[in-house]
Amino acid sequence: MGEYILQCPVCKATVPDQYTNECPNGCFGLLQPQYQEKRFVIQKKHAGMFRFTDWLCCHGTVLTDAGPVTYRSENLGPELGLSNLYICFSGYWPERQANLVTCSFKELEALPTMQRRLECTNSILLVASAGNTGRAFAQVSAYSGIPVIITVPSSAVASIWTTKETDNVFLVTVDGDYSDAIAAGNRICEMEGVIPEGGAKNPARRDGMGTAMLDAVSVIGSLPDWYFQAVGSGTGGIAAWEMAQRLIRDGRFGTTLPRLYLSQNIPFIPMVSAYHAGRREIIPDTDMPDAENATGKVSAPVLTNRNPPYSICGGVFDALSATRGKMNAITNDEAKKAGAYFTRHEGIDLDPAAAVCVASLMQAVRAGEADRDETILLHITGGGYQRVREDYHLLPVEPGAHIGKEESVKQVCTQIRQWMDAR
Ligand SMILES: *Cc1c(COP(=O)(O)O)cnc(C)c1O
Ligand SMILES: [Zn+2]
To answer: I need a surface site. Which of 126, 128, 242, 331 has the fewest CB within 10 A?
Structure first.
C-alpha cells in the first residue's frame, strides 16, 4: 500500500494529496511524491504494474495484469552489435505477457491516475489527448466505472476505442489539432465539478510511466546505463529519472543515473532544438517555426506537444542535465525503416512513436555515442495494434459532442452537465 506525501522541488513544502497537482505556494515545479517505503519492493501478490504499488501515487490497487514487460533482446541486440540490449515493451503482446490492450504506455498513466481520482476527489477528470491518452483513459473508465471527459482533435476520433461497452466516457471531438483539443478542454474545466487530469504535473501519471524503469531493474538486476525513449511532452523521460533516483537511494542497484536518450520526429523537434542550443527555454520562433504545419507532417502525432514540461523545475531540461542526457531527431523515413527492421527481428508491430525511438538508438550506436557493451534500455512505448485485433473486438467510443472551428464551448458544457446530472 503506497503511503506518500507530495513535495515541491522548489520551496520543499509538503502537502497531503487532494488530487493536488500544483505547489500551494505557486512555485514553477513538478510536485513529487515522497513515499514512506524507501526500498524497492516488488509485491508478488499483485500482477502487472501494481507489483510496484509502494511507489505508485495512489493508496489502493487496481485488479489488472497490465504492465510494462522487459526482456533481453536476443535478435535486435546482436543484429545491432549490442551485447546488453534490453527492451521494455509497453503495449499488447500476450506471448510476452504484455497486456496493455490499448497498446501504449499511456495505460500505465491512466490506471493509477483513475485510482488516485477515486481516492482524492469527486470531481470528474478532463483529459485532452492526441489519441493514445484518450484511448487509455476510456478503457480504464469502461472497466472501473469511473467517469471521464475526453477531448480529442476530430481527426483522432478513430483512435478512441475500448474493449468493453461503456457510458462512463463523454467524448468531445474538436476541429483543429491537439492544441485546439487542449484549449477546448481548458474551457470545459471551468465547469463546477470538472478538473483537469494534469498531464505531466500529475505525479500519478509520471510514477505510472516510471514503472518501466522499475520493471527493467527487476529484470536486469541493476540500473541500465542508458534509457532510450521518443518524447512529445517528455513526461516518460522525467518519470524514468525520478524512479532511478529512488532506486539509487535504495542502494542495491547502482550509484549512477541512467543517461536519458530522448528523441523527436522531424520536422517538429522543439525540445531537441532547445537542448542542442543548451537552453532551458523553448523559443517558439527558433525551436518550432511554423508549428501548425510541422505538427501535421510527422509520422508520430503523439510526439507533437507544443507546450512540454521542459523548462519547469524537475522537468525535461533538469532530467537531461542531471543524467548527462542526449537527444536526437529522426525523419519519418528513418522511423519507418527502423520500425520495419524492429518488427522483422523482434516480431511485433510498433506505434510510429516507438519506431522513432528504434531509429534513434540505431543512429546513436552508429555515431558511437552508446558503447556496444553498455546496458541499454530501449523503451518501446507502444505496439501490438495488429496483434490486439486478433484477440479483441474493438468498440469505437461514440462522441457525445462536437466543437467546430467557430462554435462556442457553451453548448457542449450544457450537454456535459446533463450527462453528469443523469449519472
Ligand atoms: C505519448 C507517447 C509518447 C511520448 O511520451 P511522453 O513521455 O509523454 O513524451 C511516446 N510513445 C507513445 C506510443 C506515446 O503514446
Ligand atoms: Zn513550492
So the answer is: 331
Instruction: Say if ligand 1 is within 6 A of residue 104 CB.
Output: yes
Ligand 1, atom 12, residue with closest C-alpha = 381
Are the beta carbons of 330 and 265 closer than 8 angstroms?
yes
CATH number corresponding to 69-103+203-385: 3.40.50.1100
**Residue 381 Cβ < 6 Å to ligand 1:** yes
One fold for both 69-103+203-385 and 124-192+393-421? yes
Q: What is the rounded average pLDDT for all residues in the chain?
A: 97
Pairing of strands 194-196, 124-128: parallel
Rounded to an integer, the average pLDDT of 13-39 is 98
pTM of the model: 0.97
Query: How close is the Cα of 319 to the center of ligand 2, in Å?
Result: 18
Strand stretches in 134-216, DSSP E: 148-153, 161-162, 169-174, 194-196
Give yes or no for residue 1 having a pLDDT over 70: no
The predicted-structure confidence for 51-80, as pLDDT tens digits, reads as follows 999 999 999 999 999 999 999 999 999 999
What average pLDDT does this structure show over 117-139?
97
**Quick one: pLDDT at residue 381?**
98
Task: Determine if ligand 1 sits within 6 Å of the CB of residue 234.
Answer: yes
Q: What is the share, in percent, of the chain residues with pLDDT greater than 90?
A: 97
Mutate to test the pocket of ligand 1, among 105, 228, 241 (most ligand atoms within 8 A of CB): 105
Name the nearest CA neighbour of 43 among 57, 69, 61. 61
Number of the ligand closest to the Cα of 159: 1
Burial 162-197 (b: 16+ CB within 10 A, else e): bbeebebbbbbbbbbbbbbbbebbebbbebeebbbb
Protein residue with least CA distance to atom 1, ligand 1: 302
Q: Name which residue sits closest to atom 2 of ligand 1, judged by CA.
A: 302
What percent of the chain shows pLDDT beyond 70? 100
- What is the topology classification, in CATH, of domain 124-192+393-421? Rossmann fold (3.40.50)
Does ligand 1 lie within 6 Å of residue 156's CB atom? no
Domain ranges (residues) in the chain: 69-103+203-385, 124-192+393-421
